[in-house]
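Can't attach files on this board, so I'm pasting raw text. These are the components:
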Amino acid sequence: MTRRWARLLAHRPVWVTGLLVIAYLAFQLWAEWAGAAKLQAAGLRGADRPAHVELVLAVTPEPFHMAIFQDAGRLIAVRGQSVFLLDVPPDALRALAARYWVRAVRPWAGR
Amino acid sequence: MIARGLRSPRLLESAGGLALVLALWQLSVPLVGLSEYFYPSPLRVARAFAELIEKGILPVYVADSLARYAGSVAVGTLLGVVLGVAVGLSRLVSRLLAPFINFLYAIVEAAWIPLFVVWWGYGIKVIVVLLVYIVFFPMFYNTMVGVRTVPQVYVDAVRALGARRWQVIADVIVPAALPNIITGVRVGAGFAFRGLIFAEMLAAKTGVGYLIYEGVSTQHTARTIVGMICMGLMWLVIDNAYLKPFERATIERWGVVVTAGEKG
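---
Top answer:
Structure tokens for the assembled complex are below.
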């Protein structure tokens, strides 16, 4: 069995794909874990209703980021590196928090 | 294995060549004396590269491009092989389809773009259909030629042993045509990669091709160069990690390679 694995791993496409898959999964796991920690800190972990949130970004947002925010909820305002969103569904909020360029998530009263 | 790769003199030589090009580029910037918009330095490009990663843009664009590419190459390859085998094996199918496929081959992929845009608008469908179209023809023709040049004696020998038609196709014809099919994959994958960048420039809002195009239109020329470098790196990985080993293994497996000392 071990010899068979060793023979399989001797093929470059196999080990390159393996490395890529491992790197991708490790990154996804880390992103999920970091996202959950951000939501926990905001008291939004386990939310089951759409929430109004302020996202504090690590970068200045560009059209690329705006498109993501508009897909997630209603984009109300951008002030510096903070973005204000209304009605973000729980799944979209988890996905947003998992982005590494989102530094923090804060609950927002709205308007 | 990875450590062995890192110690290889060829890799070191390639890295040396790259370092030399970068040094000459950096030195030429003050001599040329143009603004960063016209002629960004390698340091500016490196900063743009880091910024695109920090902003989460580059990983998404690279992943989107690779997903579109891999999916399209897989579908185009499958279609090309299936139709290539069918046309190669059957005179009737050949008479029915070959003239039409030959006619389509003459219509370059760029000519389809306006029509695809009318049908599906700007977006992923146009890119995928265009890439499948690009991959299909080299796959189809190489497979067809491979199937037609299988020596009849192989087929007769297996049939004499009682093999059924499907067994002949699966165990004799397709393996014998494999070197041609692999050549088709390499040619098609190469064309498709160029097509991907071109299609993304025209019909996408993400992807490396879009980055190249958007960089110039937003006066971020360094980002355009980052996109071009990513394009080169992606192709190097695809070719060295997948296409070349796949081709080598297949050709060696099916005995086409003549190694030194065997000849004569």
